[in-house]
Amino acid sequence: MNPHNVGVIENPDGYGKVGNPVCGDLMEIFIRVRDDVIEDIRFRTFGCGSAIATSSMVTDLAKGKTLDEALKITRDDVATELDGLPPRKMHCSNLAADALHAAIRDYREKQKTGEGAAQHP
Amino acid sequence: MEGRIYLDHAAAMPVHPGVARFARRFPESFAGNPSTIYREGLFAQEALAEAREKVAALIGAGDPASIIFTSGATESNNIAIRGAALRNKKTGKMVVTSTIEHISVLNPAKDLQKSGFTFTLVPVDRFGVIDLDALGAAVTPETVVTSVHYANNEIGTVQPIREVAEIVHDRGGFLHVDATDAAGRIPINVGRDGIDLLTLSGNQLGGPDGVGALYIRPGVRVQPVLVGGGQERGLRPGTENVFGIACMGEAARLAGEEMPEESPRLVAIRDRLIAGITGIEEAFLTGHPAERLPHHASFRFSRIEGESIQLAMNALGIAVATGSACTSRTLEASHVLLAIGLAHDEAHGSMVATLGRRNSLDEVPRVVNAARETVKRLRAITPL
């Protein structure tokens, strides 16, 4: 178990958080965007091995991509890149693509409203 | 498994080397069916009789005929609960268990509802000790079977079985005790403890998998769950697993013989492990601090998840268990950890270490360091 892109980006351009600790999986993703490209991406996850693996994989997949390309990354893409997940983990622990999309949406909202970076807790 | 530290004996035990030696002495040409009367059949009958005596001796059962052999603890629990409840349903149609029983006790009890039984769960306190007042209120003269385990496999807590037996017998019902995790580790005496039916697992005594036993106090009537030939007093039909049963018998003998030395040795390792791991920030013991099995140390860590703990410990060479929902087939949090009052997110962060005869005090620092490293790594990436 050696996850990539672990940690926090201070004052991120976009921030997404999905899941909840009662279910056992909670993920947050931080992105730094330059010229519509994901220049840096970090995650923090509370959850099982599959949850950590999908978080790590989605950050690897998204890094260097344009926002539109990154929005096309699906849960299935993440699972496929990991050579599959146990069937019962496909739903609960495969939230990383959702967290990425939430971070991108957050970035775009902020661009629209002209606000600064999203605050994370 | 060079360099590994195995701490999940509650899940599976290695076969005791004395049992392996015993198995090697078993004749290679052995082919006797105990239902036959030629010499080979008689050899098989003797092997069964010897195993029955050895198992009876471990639990202080005077009459070896009170032991029947099964395929394991799950089957023993099913025969005890379904068999005794259905056979005695004229007395009443109620069964009672604690909230923290093994699933192979809870499910047969639940299933009896289809046969018109009511099923009552008795709560435990935050250490996992059964609430005797609630038990007294739940057990009535209509309660045919009450099932309370000797000790819990997830939190190690040992139950006040004699007090439980008094309450159950005062109302006239039978007490079934699942002793899978306790037998061979703490002294059990079915007479002294007031036990009517007792479940044993062959593997948990240091024998092979796929064999178990059920003690049935003489006079307690049980009906079969499986029907077929008349083997094992008709309660476990099918040709006996002679080799497995013989090995379980030897395991029971060795466990009884070694318990006076082995249990204190395990307690010393356990207590050092508990002291070390509860020294980690936001790490807590689960289960009872004193009334616990000699080989059992169980914990929870805040803000991290058990399956990740298990994987990280595995990468550091150590096999541990967890009650995390993420490792269960149903993805539900452990019913035991919820029953002792933990919140769902707290129950996710559990780690269980169960010791065996190969473990030693020398291993404790490596385990504690690995746990410390694991907790540090996982806390560094947790959003909580």
Which descriptors would you attach to this protein?
heterodimer; A: 121 residues; alpha+beta; 5 helices; 40% helix; B: 384 residues; alpha/beta; 3-stranded antiparallel β-sheet; 12 helices; 12 strands
Give a written overview of the molecule:
The complex is a heterodimer of chains A (121) and B (384). With 121 residues, chain A is an alpha+beta fold. Chain A has 5 helices and 3 strands. Chain A has a 3-stranded antiparallel beta sheet with strand order 1-2-3. In chain A, strand 2 (25-34) and strand 3 (37-46) form a beta hairpin. Chain B is of the alpha/beta class. In chain B, the strands form 3 sheets. In chain B, strands 2-8-7-6-5-3-4 form a 7-stranded mixed beta sheet, with helices on both faces. In chain B, helix 7 links the parallel strand 6 and strand 7. In chain B, helix 2 runs parallel beside helix 8 (242-277), helix 3 packs parallel to helix 4 and helix 9 crosses helix 12. Chain B is globular and about 65 Å long. The two termini of chain B are 36 Å apart. The model of chain B has no long low-confidence stretch (mean pLDDT 96). At the A-B interface, strand 2, strand 3 and helix 1 of A face helix 9 of B.
Report the average pLDDT across residues of chain B.
96
SSE succession of chain B: EHHEHEHEHEHEHEEHEEHEHHEH
Main sheet specs of chain A: 3 strands, antiparallel
Counting DSSP E segments of at least 2 residues, the number of strands of chain B comes to 12
Give the fraction of residues assigned to helices of chain A.
Answer: 25-40%
- Which blocks of ≥5 consecutive residues of chain B have pLDDT under 50? none
Order of helices and strands of chain A: EEEHHHHH
